[in-house]
Amino acid sequence: MSEYHTLTAAGAVDYARQYAGLADPQSLVDALEVGDGNLNLVFKILDRQGISRVIVKQALPYVRCVGESWPLTLDRARIEAETLLIHGRYCPRHTVRILHHDPALAVMIQEDLSDHAIWRCELLTGTYYPHAARQLGEYLAQVLFHTSDFYQPPQRKKADVARFTNPEMCQITEDLFFTEPYRIHERNTYPTALEPEVAALRADGQLNLAIAGLKHRFLSQAEALLHGDIHSGSVFVADGRLKAIDAEFGFYGPMGFDMGTAIGNLLLNYCGLPGLLALREAATGREQRLQDVRELWLAFSEGFLALAAEKTADATLATPGYARLFLHHVWHDTLGFCGTELIRRTIGFAHVADLDGISEEAMRLDCQRHALSLGKMLIMAAPHIGDVDALIARIRQNG
Ligand code: SR1
Ligand code: MG
Questions:
Q1: How many Å lie between the centroid of ligand 2 and the Cα of residue 36?
Q2: Residue nearest to atom 4 of ligand 1 (CA)
Q3: Whether the model pTM is above 0.85
Q4: Which atom of ligand 1 is least distant from the CA of 177?
Q5: CA dihedral 386, 391, 396, 399 (to 10 degrees)
Q6: What would the mean pLDDT of 358-373 be, rounded to a whole number?
Q7: Residue 80 exposure: Cα atoms within 13 Å on the Cβ side
Q8: How far is the CA of 66 from the centre of ligand 2 (A)?
């Protein structure tokens, strides 16, 4: 193990030569830094033909999009690699492959996915991947079931809860999802024109009670080893294929948080499409998003129930009907967490191109208002929305 230092492009090439496990390491000659997320350095490692062969990803000791004034734990790189290794054990088809990792250097080497595209980028241009939502639901069913008390022996599960305690990254989520958007806070960003809507969120006592309940569940419910940040920018897609990446927010938390984040990002795209595409394409895209939401939930819930019927290890949790009862509570959590994702991505610190990428200002404001009202509706109506078809009917009613 080496002492932590930030890799240069040349250092990343050397590192990949040593540790990627390639048969022809000397063919690696160049590196391209392509990190466009909020946090890390990401190098594509190229061979003599200019073909990307592996990815070297290194955590920086601060939030990249802010700078050194916002320091951040390097332990997130260990958590990310170990989360992806565990998720890869239970769902290799839909988890990026980790070839090597080094906690001291906060580095991992991953398989190259250059023949895939980031799902968010495809959603922005109206490119439809008809299998993606179902595949993401299958991934979440596999990894959440197998890391939960339904499957893990209780002592091993508790050891994993300790191993995946991720306090600094969780604090980011706790602050950005559940606290800052509902307060006056310097990290919030939104156009002045939205101030009346934002002030109304702050003043809404019932909404703030519901947010308190969601934050409390996020803080306290160690149900499964979550991905922790499964938005459409953490998912690579290709024709008939899907891979989850970027699990540095991984921790033991409520399953509905991953489901809510995933559905929330489909709905952010639903809200933004009228500003991103021409009328007819936007309408088609919106129907596809609603279909995606339906397939994502059904693939997750049906997959989870099938696994529970076949593989529940705990005799009490195997009581007939219990897995279905548990899923009801995951469903209601999902709706609430989904609403918080819509709101925080619209007025909080970290925005998404589905809304901010809309060039025409009046249209952008309309789409942002839609995301806020849909988010609030989901949080408030969560206990009364019985299933995914009722959800889709409510989304249509909301505009
Ligand atoms: C400071 S990190 C901001 C956001 O980027 C990540 O992708 C997470 O979604 C986080 O909330
Ligand atoms: Mg990320």
A1: 10
A2: 350
A3: yes
A4: 11
A5: 110
A6: 98
A7: 33
A8: 15
Closest CA to 136 of 230, 35, 24, 15: 230
Q: Is the pLDDT of residue 2 over 80?
A: no
Closest-approaching ligand to the CA atom of 246 = 2
Q: Name the CATH topology of 117-398.
A: Aminoglycoside 3'-phosphotransferase; Chain: A, domain 2 (3.90.1200)
Among left, alpha and beta (phi > 0; psi -120 to 50; other), residue 92 is alpha
Atom of ligand 1 nearest to the CA of 231: 9
How many C-beta atoms lie closer than 10 Å to residue 5's C-beta? 9
9-111 maps to CATH 3.30.200.20: yes
Which tokens is 176 given? 């950005």
Ligand 1 atom index nearest CA of 234: 7
Residue 359 main-chain phi, psi, to 5 deg: -80, -35
- Per-residue pLDDT tens digits for 67-125: 999 999 999 999 999 999 999 999 999 999 999 999 999 999 999 999 999 999 999 99
The answer to whether 298 touches 140, Cβ cutoff 8 Å, is no
Atom 8 in ligand 1: residue holding the nearest Cα: 229
Res 377 pLDDT > 90: yes
Cα 337 to Cα 47, 327, 328, 344, 359, distances in angstroms: 43, 15, 14, 11, 28
Report whether residue 350 contacts ligand 1, using a CB cutoff of 6 Å.
Answer: yes
Mutate to test the pocket of ligand 1, among 36, 38, 178, 345 (most ligand atoms within 8 A of CB): 38
- Tell which residue, 63, 102, 112, 104, has the closest CA to residue 81: 102
Q: How confident is the model at residue 36 (pLDDT cuts 50, 70, 90)?
A: confident
Least confident segment among 8-12, 32-36, 285-289, 354-358: 32-36
Secondary structure (DSSP) of 178-208: IIGGGS--TT----GGGHHHHHHHHH-HHHH
176 lines ligand 1 (CB under 6 A): yes
| Ligand found nearest the CA of 172 | 1
Separation CA 150–CA 322 (nearest Å): 10
Q: Structural domain boundaries of the chain?
A: 9-111, 117-398
Decide: 380 in ligand 1 pocket, CB within 6 A.
Answer: no
Span between the terminal Cα atoms of the chain, in Å: 55
